[in-house]
Design a protein that fits this description.
It is a single chain. The chain starts with a helix and ends with a helix. It contains twelve helices and no strands. It is elongated, with a radius of gyration of 22 Å. About 80% of the residues lie in helices and about 0% in strands.
């Protein structure tokens, strides 16, 4: 009975693949994602994978698995994309998301290092490095990373907030307060800076 069921399933998948081309399945997958039908979007990509198991397919499967909060599988998919293009930064940037969701901060730092090997000024990599260091309790290093980002993006309030919190956690209340005050000067309703000011008291 199981054999018959398996044969029927294979037949259905083959029939679906034959009925829809790879471009059609990609189009379906994107439309399904935009409609927040992540399961269906993934199904379309798995049909593509049965016909054309390439880099982009693996990359997109990793993304959809992340959206579905299937983080271990997402890590596997991104890692398989890395196998095909180890020099690319995209799969490492993708890999950071499910690793961070699982609070695997040391693994996040490894992924960041791989991104920065080919793209040292990557905003996403720098941001995630600062955040990972913060979560590992390495507040001085985290503050240094936030400062590096702010040099390149002086108007980035989120990164200034990150700096303020790293300073505060390191016990540097005076400098942290100055950072939070500057944020509140231009964004008076900023919740993070408001909470930071209170904690600086």
């Amino acid at each position: 009975m199981r054999l018959i069921t398996s044969l029927i399933l294979v037949f259905v998948l083959v029939s679906l693949c034959a009925a829809e081309t790879v471009p059609e399945l990609y189009s379906q997958s994107y439309s399904q994602e935009y409609a927040e039908g992540y399961d269906k979007a993934l199904e379309s990509m798995l049909l593509i994978k049965s016909q054309s198991d390439d880099y982009l397919c693996r990359l997109r499967i990793g993304w959809l698995l992340y959206l579905l909060e299937r983080n271990d599988e997402s890590v596997e998919a991104y890692s398989s994309a890395i196998e095909l293009h180890p020099e690319a930064v995209e799969p490492y940037l993708g890999l950071i998301m499910p690793l961070a969701a699982q609070k695997k901060w040391r693994s996040v730092l490894v992924a960041v290092e791989n991104v920065q090997r080919n793209d040292p000024a990557s905003y996403s990599a720098m941001n995630n490095k600062a955040w990972a260091l913060y979560n590992l309790g390495r507040y001085v290093e985290s503050a240094d990373e936030y400062r590096n980002i702010i040099k390149l993006h002086p108007a980035d309030i989120d990164m200034s907030s990150g700096l303020g919190w790293a300073l505060l956690k390191d016990g540097n209340k005076v400098e942290a307060k100055l950072v939070f005050e500057e944020i509140l000067r231009i964004a008076p309703d900023n919740i993070s800076a408001g909470e930071g000011i209170i904690d600086c008291q």
